[in-house]
Amino acid sequence: MPDYHKLLKVAIEEARQGLAEGGVPVGACLADQDGNVLGRGHNQRVQQGDPTIHGETDAFKKAGRQRGYHNKIMVTTLAPCWYCSGLIRQFNIGTVVVGESVNFQGGIDWLRENGVRVIDLHDEECIRMMSEFIQAKPELWAEDIGE
Fold it and tell me: Is 14 a catalytic site residue?
């Protein structure tokens, strides 16, 4: 069984990088069932001026083409938004590990209802990082989640 906390550390590193670059601190990685990281990435909407580069989509793209996704694990510092939840369903990613869902619930209930295994680690660092970001840059946060 993969070490979800170890995989979350990879996503947190990515989130910190995004924050240091002036972006939204959401990081992610896509791993195989043994916990090997296939791709990692972070939200780059601000940095690249591209609204499609969320943490999950960046990690997914960097993982490259896979033969299937049901046995893959998407690890993200924050509950995935509807856009990223759609990506998870579209490609039938079997497990999603969420660093936190306190600041944002995203589509995790919908994912669960549709058979995706969602593991919420309630990580204090993820909660704090996103909470501080939302307080410091509420307009950028609202833009990121489409409000």
Answer: no
